[in-house]
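the two lines:
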Amino acid sequence: MEMSLADPKNKIAEIAQEVKNTSYKEKMNLYSEKNINAFLDAILDVKSYLKERTERLNHISNLFSEVTWIDNLNEKDLELIHDIISSAKELRYTLVKIYINYNELKIRGIATDEVKEFKKAIDNYTEDYEDLEYIFFNSSKNKLFNQITTGLSKL
Amino acid sequence: MPAIYCLEDFKTEFESLISDKQYRDLESDIINYFFSSKSTEELCSGKRLNATSDGAFEFPYIKKRFEGSGGYRVYFLLIKKDDKLYLMFIHPKTGPSAARNLKEEKIAELYQKIFDNIKTQNLFKVELFNERLKFIHLYDELKSRRTYKEADQIVNRNAYLSKKTLINAAGETCFMNKLRIDVKDGHHEVLCELHPNENYTGQATFLQLDKVLRDWWPIN
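prediction for all of em together
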């Protein structure tokens, strides 16, 4: 029996053809070099982003250490160090949120080393500004340390 | 490179850690950092814990992070004028013995302890022997001294002890008048003269300095 163009059943054939074509195209795309490259590039971008953040954090941690080697600090200097610590605490909050997002990738096996290094850098960074707080703003410790350091100079 | 000493706390922790395979890199990390001909100034790296103290420039108390797999934290004191370094404590940040950062009380306690132990010489000398670290207690080193020159150096090193009141663990006190060198069995040994108090004029008691240093501490 001949099927007319107006026949609704003809629509089924059209749909079937469209699904078939799409399925074929997508299968071809799935393994196409172009798409794989785009995916790999995205992973590399993530890795590069994390590496850059990690290096930046390590640099800031080094700066925190350098602060402890400056002598003859006055009240104004201490106020600035106090500001550094406050900003550092705020930054940590943001860094932890970034880490939580990227940790999802680590769980899926993507950028595992980079995420681990980023986490280590956050931990070191946190330890370093906490040390700064202890070194400069723990008055009972400062009193005792002053006595001991003076004692050492008299040995 | 400065002469290197350590507290018993450091030695105990170090020996415990290197007995674990996980921390087998620790000894080489220490050797590479502290025994690689670095000058005292080059060792001024890390965080200076006593930064706010007068004189911290000459006596930096340092917390250093090693960037190896164990992520070790080393606490040490430098005495620049004497070119001496005192290792005080170490702990890893990863692995089975990983520890959180030292508590503030512990950091202060270590500083007090190194000061006290430098005074009493209750320290280990740390040396490199066949690419391994060797710990020699200064009392043992003292015992093996033979020559007059060496005994004289001990007298000089401990000269600050004379004219000082000492106290022992039982709370008893005595007064150290002076140090002297004697020859015993062909060896030179350092003796100290002890009195019951500063104004005592009677017969003095002489005891070996190393024995006295084991049990008595200066309190002034």
